[in-house]
Amino acid sequence: MNSANPLLEERPLPAFGRILPEHACPAIESILADNRARIKNLKSDPPDEASLLLPLEEMGSRLEEAFSPIQHLRAVCDSPEWREAYNTCLQKITEYSTDLLHNKELYLNFKKLRESDAWSDLSAPRQKEVILALRDYRLGGVHLPEEKKKRFAEIEQELAACCARFTDNVTDATGAWSLVLEEKSRLEGVPPPHREMLRADAEAHGLDGWRISLMPPSVQAILTYADDRDLRYEVYVAYTTRASDQGPHAGKHDNTELIEQILRLRYEQSQLIDFDTISERALATRMAETPSQVLDFLHDLMGRAREQAKNEWEELRKFARNELGLEDMQRWDQAWVGEHLRISRYGLREAELKPFFAADATIQGMLDLAADLFQLKISQRDDVDVWHPDVRFYEIHDAHGELLGQFYLDPYARPHKHGGAWMGTCAHRRRCGTGTQPAVAYLTCNGSPPTADTPALFGHTDVVTLFHEFGHGLHHMLTRVDCAGVSGTEGVEWDAVEWPSQWMENWCWEPEVLNRFARHYQTGQPLPEDMAERLRDSRIFNAGLDLMRQLEFALFDFRLHLEYRPEDGARVEELLAEVRREINVMETPEFVRTAHSFEHIFSGGYTAGYYSYKWAEVLSGDTYAAFQEEGLFNKATAKRFADCVLSAGGVRSAAEMFEAFRGRPPSPDALLKQMGLAA
Q: Would residue 469 show up in a list of annotated catalytic residues for this protein?
């Protein structure tokens, strides 16, 4: 099997055309066995870069580059076979990773290196790798007695399994519900491109009529445009009760017990390594240093935004009553009323905007913007194995022709693909025997796919999402650091990782940028200047409500992990109710189960970290303000940002990187101005 296993081949890129679920476990088992043997025979006395750091980097990269396609295929081509393969491999890798962090001999070698004369010979990236490794050994429990190490390892295995099941339940719950409409009248108000998307979905499932699913484009189409209030309610209930004890599939794929298990295990593990709470342990790898610092930050934003959010909510209710004849606006009406109010205020209809954002032109416009800002050449290749015909592959070269990075772009929603959007790592930039290996990324979105009659058209929200994920990709691919442990986003504090991605979003609102690529897909007409201006002006529309929604998620997540105690249980719904009362803007129906599909915090790495989006947005807003002050397309500003942030990896702290770029600490003023809030 090994000789014919594509996951074991020396490769510049994964052979996606040949990788099957049955290849996964044999490949991972083979690599783990080889790594364990090499670690056992590792001669690192005295420890230095050649004897300790390089062998471990090579072993870690080989494992990551084999597991990465497995992890990715489970998300973009989900099937029982891929789930089983992924989950089995995850358990084996979790055991190996825990053993590695519990290897006291390795830990002592890192410690000796830190204290030896050889320390001064190491480059700054290698020194930072050692510092981070020593931190991770401590957080991984290397100092624990054997009995507690054993329990720590057991918890790691249980957590890996629980988090994977949490995601599987959300995916299954999302796919389990659909509604087929035979009468077009129920779709009154839904623009033709969205109706065509729903019809194409029905045809793809061998059905007549229009099929509504719980995939984001479908949900957004109904909640934003459908005049049929009962239909909006039905979709809202199905979507907000996924994987819970409520809704049309109550109790099926229910994550209630998994939430309890995950929190109990996280708490026990935190206690084992001498942290009082899960949140305190999480902050050991963040910019924020204490729970009070995070809570003060969130409450400060809440205080600044609450009155505006209340006014926006009341304005929606008044508009619904006076203009739409809706006396009692509910949450399933909010997007629909908001769209009508936005049209009334700005004269912008999403249906009128969408034809100007053909997917191909939008993607190319984004790439051209990055190429212009950072003096890059970005080109598409058609000779690379991909997992689906929709997927494109690109290469990024610098002005001198050096290959900096490569990425796969999977832009559209489809069956058996997880919802949401993300940037995943295929390979890190690192120095190896054949030269410098470039960074490789997966960029995954869930925009509306093409239909038989129209090309793929993005809503402006889809455009923002695309730019966001590409911002992550630039952070990963433009790095100049050759040490995998601090290359790209590696080693960057978790609450700063969203900085470049949120910075990239800003360009989606600039008329000067939109006019470069926004063309009507049928006529070629540029986006009219007045529409571009109105779109930019509309950015602050309901900004207070949007901020309060994010603060609700962030406060719930952080308090959940800060206040959890086994004797009290998770108190999920009780805590959510407390947070909503504190926000005190709009009521949420009792049947809504926010936590049960909250993958970010239960299976996505954002444990006590959802606040990071707003924390990093302060950095991104202040960064973008520099471009506004110095000229949007100022090459010197872009070069400074690339040098100080995008290429710097995790060698310096995010605070140091920001000060190197801006010449001072970050200020929230730019973000507050951007959101229409008084600074």
A: yes
| Token pair belonging to 279 | 């949140």
Q: List pLDDT tens digits, range 637-649.
A: 999 999 999 999 9
DSSP string, 511-534: HHHHHHH-B-TTT-PBPPHHHHHH
Tell me the per-residue pLDDT of 210-258, one tens digit each, with 9 for 90 and over.
Answer: 999 999 999 999 999 999 999 999 999 999 999 999 999 999 999 999 9
DSSP 190-201: S-HHHHHHHHHH
The per-residue DSSP string of 229-277 comes to HHHHHHHHHHHHTTTSSSSTTTTTT--HHHHHHHHHHHHHHHHHTT-SS
User: What does the block give as tokens for 415?
Assistant: 């069956």
Count of CB atoms situated within 10 Å of the CB of 104: 12
Is residue 148 classed as helix, strand or coil in its secondary structure?
helix
Q: State how far the Cα of 389 lies from the Cα of 323, in Å rounded to an integer.
A: 46
How long, in residues, is the chain? 679
Q: Are strands 439-447 and 403-412 parallel, antiparallel or unpaired?
A: parallel
Catalytic residue among 129, 469, 498, 599: 469
Which two structure tokens, joined as six digits, stand for 360? 């191909």
What are the pLDDT digits (tens) for 560-592? 999 999 999 999 999 999 999 999 899 999 999
Environment class of 209 (CB within 10 Å of its CB; exposed 0-12, middle 13-18, buried 19+): middle
CB 114 within 8 A of CB 46: no
Map residue 392 onto helix, strand or coil: strand
The letter for the amino acid at 314 is E
Nearest C-alpha neighbor of 413 from the set 679, 606, 221: 221
Sign of CA dihedral 564, 568, 573, 578: negative
Q: Output Rg (C-alpha) for the chain, integer angstroms.
A: 25
pLDDT for 10 equals 87
Cα gap 517→368, rounded to integer Å: 9
